[in-house]
Amino acid sequence: MKRLRIAAALALGLGTGGTDAAEPSAAIAKPGAARDVTFLSISDTHYDAFENEDRNDRVRETVRQMNAVAEAAWPKALGGDAVPRPRGVVALGDLIDDGDRRLPQGVQGPRQWAAFVADFGLDGTDELLNYPVFEGWGNHDGPPAGKEKFGFSTQAELRKRNATRKEKGLVKNLGPSGLHYSWDWDDVHFVQLGLYPADRQHEKIKYSPVWHDPQGALTFLKEDLAQAVGTSGRPVVLMSHCGFDTDWWHPDDWKAVYDAMKPYRVVLYLYGHTGTGVQEWAPQGEPRKWLCINDGHGDVGFFVVQIRGETMRFAYRLRANANWGWKFEKAVALAPAPP
Fold first, then answer.
1. How many helices (H) and strands (E) does the chain have?
2. Deepest in the core among 120, 167, 209, 218, taking most CB within 10 A?
3. DSSP secondary structure, 304-319, as one string
4. Rounded-to-integer distance, Cα 161 and Cα 333, Å
5. Distance CA 303, CA 309 (A)
6. Burial category of 324 from C-beta neighbours within 10 Å (exposed 0-12, middle 13-18, buried 19 and up)
7. How many CB atoms lie within 10 A of CB 130?
């Protein structure tokens, strides 16, 4: 079966990987229905205020390039055909750099947040970005609403935006925290898990338990998939700020989410926090590995991902001096449904 899936990928002109520095040139569906979903992923934009605001300019240029990618071509190794118009952008946390900090010039959070919103907007019609955005929070974005010291809460703003997304029909399920949510593009189910998918900070993790509270993400994930995916075998894409390469959450929690997902067809895990790259991961001794994309450094670039039929292709669109090129190009067969 694996050979057949790879052959299908090649028949679609997806290639199998390589490097190429090319120039730029929700409705729910039943399993097995037409599946062709293209989206963008970015993380760690770290909008700043009163210092390091040159980073904001670089991220803004990334947003312009995300708009332009709808007129670009895939790298030659992945077929060289036109990139389909993305359905949206997932933003994986550390949206701003200082969620609860005051400098002599003022509290940074409101100014940083305003810069994020001015570039990313919400639904693709209101600000610079031409597609809907689906963001979560990271460790830099500040503590839970009500725990802030200086009068501004990023998480309170996220709750407002998520409520608006629900009203607009951009997301299907919004959790009780107002921070975790899910939606479908074709029959692919996407889940935004915020900081990381645990219910609370592990007792052995010593980072601030106030700031770094995942606020019931694992319970939301379990309940959401039981209701929205069940035994259908539909592909599932998970995302959070932290991945499986950081001590900001505990390996016990990694295994807990992996075990909870065993009945489901997880085809991709997206995260930021630590850098940029692609890997496969599973707890030690587990045979079914998850494909993971680590998408950091929003001032440098973003991933383009297409899930089509039983194949996936993706590449990192990055700034190289004055030009934009490609890196981490890969085409794969989708992970099969569990037995």
1. 6, 15
2. 120
3. EEEEETTEEEEEEEEE
4. 35
5. 19
6. buried
7. 18
| CB neighbourhood size of 327 (10 A) | 18
pLDDT tens string 110-145: 999 999 999 999 999 999 999 999 999 998 899 999
Beta-carbon contacts of 116 under 8 Å, excluding residues fewer than 6 positions away, are 45, 47, 95, 96
d(CA 203, CA 131): 39
**What mean pLDDT is predicted for residues 256-275?**
96
How far apart CA 223 and CA 324 sit, in angstroms, is 41
Report the C-alpha gap between 75 and 15 in whole angstroms: 10
Instruction: Please report where in the chains the tokens 């609860």 appear, as a residue.
Output: 100
DSSP helix/strand/coil, 53: coil
Tokens at 59, concatenated: 């991220």
3 contacts: CB under 8 Å, gap ≥ 6: none
Q: Do β-strands 181-185 and 188-192 pair in parallel, antiparallel, or remain unpaired?
A: antiparallel
92: helix, strand or coil: coil
Express each pLDDT in 242-253 by its tens digit: 999 888 788 999
Dist CA 167 CA 64 (whole Å): 27
Domains of the chain in start order, with CATH, are 2-333 (3.60.21.10)
CA atoms of 97 and 303, how far apart (whole Å)? 21
CB count within 10 Å of CB 297 equals 21
Q: Which position has the token pair 């085809």?
A: 267
Q: Which two tokens stand for residue 135?
A: 């963001």
Q: What are phi and psi of 94, to 5 degrees?
A: 50, 50
Beta-carbon neighbour count of residue 318 at 10 Å?
20
What distance in Å separates the CA atoms of residue 264 and residue 253, rounded to the nearest whole number? 18
